[in-house]
Amino acid sequence: MHLDDLSTLKDDMVAFIAGHGMRRMNGYVPEDVPTVIFEEDDIDGWKDFVEHAKSANAPFLTMSEVVLEPEDVATLIGQVRDHNYPDHDAAELEEAQDLTQHVGKTGYLQLGFSHGGVMFLYETATEWYDVFQELMETVTDLGQIIVDDSDED
Known about the structure:
Helices cover 42% and strands 22% of the residues. The protein is an alpha/beta fold.
């Protein structure tokens, strides 16, 4: 089952965490922190993750979400246009424009808890959020290309 909006899943997570008597802190764990990524076996694998946190006596779980904002899509479309000029029919531009239908939706969720100096993470994302991330990485990578126009004659 692929969800288009993870907001209902987030609500379920909040209720499940509270139902286990655990606290939740809004916070994102960045990539530069030592982590172990939880690999889920099924759609409700996140419940096992919460139960692992409880078993590890974690004092709380971190929770982060990403909601697609109109400004994010507008910025991405502008950057894709700039990088694909003069090709205004580029596939990347069409993908970026298609993201407007997902504005206001939750595309990414992260749960985490600390144990033994390592952060254990559960992450899930929608397909459109993965496309958004790939496009952002593409335009960022293209923006870092340096063109040397100097003549070496």
